[in-house]
Design a protein that fits this description.
By secondary structure, the protein is an alpha+beta fold. Helix content is 44%, strand content 14%.
């Protein structure tokens, strides 16, 4: 399939590109049209969905949300090069539209398209000026690509210009082996933002590298990482698997997610009214309640134990389907307090000496160059729910073949 966008800049209020009658969006406003296009995509109608968004963008060439959704759909249509080319083309076409350009640059950075960032930013500077944001973007890109000397110079330049030394800089410091300074910067960050899961994740890594005794307090207390066998029958799990497969219509993983070699459902899974999904939701909520009731005593300094456990809500929910060789790179969940993995289907994993398909907890991503092993590995089992603080690195080992399908959700404690 080729990229579904016109490399010529559309004129404002140009006539929309042809859209099939069955998904005509003319009577709808642009937000409703975008929702309709996304629903088409979720139903497996990839080409009509992309054409529909393209038509909307022809009418609204400065619409930030529309461009970001188009990029997201392209990233899940099995065309990573089309995703990158679309955002690059938009940035070049939108000369003078700083809001749109900044949004697209952020999306490229989130997608780890760091080479494209370094190519595009010099041209943007020529008309937008020497903004601090561009220096930070270049610093992050250079560090992630391994040009550590250039990155250090850019971070220093950003600091002199008033840039806040924050999480991208902490990542860079860990990558360069300066864990002591990384810990100092990360401590200041979580002091100001005590609920920021990404900050605690990097601080955990820095404390572990320097041997800080507070590391055991943060991650070593009993009950923080647990598995629960959920009260769902084999029949209910099989029905849930059938239901979930219908929702995995994308051809590739979202650009900004951790999975490789699989797909992720769109939207919030628990908002679906299928009886299979709602039955699983109720069983999983009950398991979370049991986990919270068994945690160590309240500790106001701790990012999880400091929360009020009386109430909680699910902030996001989704399903991941990994196929032959699929895996998750190690990551944290910035928007949750408590994260999870619930196993719905698993392939035969055979010899477990290398932990194929297992969940890893506390292993930093390879890009940070720490060499640290996992704090714990968890064996997957159909019907098993793993629960852990959202700030802990987690990923999966690749498995050789077959299907691994999970339900995952982030929980936020209400207190």
């Amino acid at each position: 399939m080729t990229a579904h966008f016109n490399l010529r800049a559309p004129a404002p209020h140009a006539a929309p590109l042809p859209v099939p009658d069955e998904c005509s969006l003319e009577p709808l406003d642009r937000e409703a049209g975008l929702i309709a296009a996304v629903r088409l995509f979720e139903q497996g109608e990839t080409a009509p969905a992309l054409r529909a968004v393209e038509a909307l963008l022809a009418e609204h060439p400065d619409w930030v949300e529309g461009h970001l959704v188009m990029a997201q759909l392209l990233s899940q249509s099995g065309e990573p090069e089309a995703f990158r080319e679309f955002l690059s083309w938009t940035i070049r076409r939108a000369r003078g539209d700083l809001a749109l350009v900044v949004a697209c640059l952020r999306q490229l950075s989130d997608a780890e398209q760091h080479g494209a960032i370094l190519q595009l930013v010099p041209d943007v500077r020529r008309w937008a000026g020497d903004h601090l944001f561009f220096t930070l973007l270049e610093a992050v890109a250079a560090s992630e690509l391994g040009d550590l000397t250039r990155a250090e110079g850019l971070f220093q330049a950003a600091a002199k210009a008033g840039g806040v030394l924050s999480l991208p800089h902490v990542r860079h410091l860990i990558r360069t082996g300066d864990a002591v300074k990384a810990a100092t910067v990360a401590e200041g960050f979580v002091r100001d933002q005590p609920r920021h899961q990404g900050g605690w994740g990097l601080l955990e890594t820095a404390w572990r590298l320097v041997g800080d005794t507070r590391h055991a307090w943060l991650v070593g207390q009993p009950g923080l990482v647990e598995t629960v066998d959920v009260d769902l029958s084999t029949e209910a799990l099989n029905a849930l698997a059938v239901c979930l497969r219908r929702l995995h219509g994308a051809r590739s993983h979202p650009f900004d997610q951790s999975l490789r070699g699989g797909t992720q459902t769109a939207g919030r899974l628990f908002h679906h009214d299928d009886i299979e999904i709602q039955g699983a939701r109720r069983a999983l909520r009950a398991a979370v309640r049991r986990y919270l009731d068994a945690l160590p005593p309240h500790d106001p300094r701790h990012p999880l134990l400091g929360c009020d456990r009386a109430g909680f809500h699910v902030s996001d929910s989704w399903s991941v389907r990994l196929l032959d060789g699929g895996f998750h790179v190690s990551h944290v969940h910035p928007q949750g307090t408590l994260s999870s993995a619930f196993y719905v289907t698993l392939p035969p994993l055979g010899d477990q000496s290398h932990h194929a398909g297992w969940l890893t907890i506390g292993e930093p991503p390879e890009t940070l160059r720490t060499g640290l092993p996992p704090l714990r590995v968890i064996e997957p089992k159909v019907g098993r729910l793993a629960l852990f603080p959202s700030f802990l690195w987690h990923g999966t080992r690749p498995f050789p073949q077959g299907e691994r399908m999970t339900v995952a959700f982030d929980t936020v404690l209400d207190g």
